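Long-time lurker. I teach an intro course on protein structure, and each term I like to show students one example going from raw sequence to a predicted 3D structure in token notation. This year I'd like something fresh instead of my usual example. Would anyone be willing to generate the tokens for the chain below so I can use it in lecture? Attribution to the forum is fine with me.
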Amino acid sequence: MKQRQRWIKGGSRSRWSLLLLAAIVALMLALQGCGNKNEEGAASSSAAASSPSSTAAASTAAASTAAASSQAASTASAEPERHVPEVINYGYIGLNDQNQTTGAEGWGFYKGIIQEELKKYGVKEVKLAGFPNGPDQTESLISGRLDFGSLGDTPAIIARAGGAKTRLITQPGTRTIGYLIAKKDGPKTLQDLKGKTIAIQKGSFMHRYVVGLLKDAGVTDYKLVHMLIPDAQAALAGGSVDAMTNTGVNALTSLANGYPQLDVSSDHPELLGTSATVVSEAFLEKFPDFPKVWNAAREKALADLKQHPDEYYEYIAGIQKTTVENVKKLSPIEDIKDTAFTDDGLALIEGTKNFLVEEKIAKKDFDIGDWVLKAE
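-- Reply from a regular --
Happy to contribute to a lecture. Here you go:
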């Protein structure tokens, strides 16, 4: 019995010794395998480093990565960040029940040409808003209710001189015509306006026109009162004003009804008005390419318009509730400019600005060149 116990104890020790020896051998083999793998990896890396083709490939890849990073950084710093609004707001002069406007812009909106062009840049909708005069439109532009708009040059200049943060991106027309119309049995000549009352739209093209006209004629001691055209027409009919400035279909209607014409600005080329499309600087920060995009879309609309002149005149006659003959007389297609700016147009707007500053109608002088933004 004692011998068996000793054998059992001896056998246990032997088994444990064998197990311990096997574990040690396994561990040594594992460590040797890891060492071989590291040596193989180091040898492979060493071989790759010593290979000319591998070195060139690695250098080219590194150079390409660096160049791409440099180009991306350069592009990021050169291009302004864009946040083009999906809905933008455009203002125009001339209230009508169709909420449409004239010229290449009007035709482009009417046919959907401008909307399609703007969609390419993420604009889903353009909302149009009509205004009775330029000063009202500039107030909406300054307040942010509008992003851009087309109006007469005089209110646009006055707003800019007063500190409005706008840029001029297009002169769609350079032949805006104003009329000076007297009451029946009233003044017969410009000289007869001395001491009389004249209804104008303050801050409009016609304001500048009548002041310049009477200054050149040597007429002084007259009174100007601000009235919108419908109110001025009623005042002229009632005799509470002696004369009024007018334009477009309303002017032709008054003349046809027997009101005498004292003057028309087309007789004074230096007093012709130009139209202006201005955009807020805040909008330009969101859409820096807008001047280029807008003018390209406008020119595309004009090209289409010229292919459909009869339809265009009928469209304008419908908006203005007049005849095609009147539209052809007042707004011939030939007067629509096919480029954003012309030398003649810029000379006219410079002259208008100088006059407004001299007469203290504009608050302060400024450089037209700093205002004009030509698309590149």
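Some talking points for your students: The CA atoms of residues 98 and 112 lie 15 Å apart. The radius of gyration is 39 Å.
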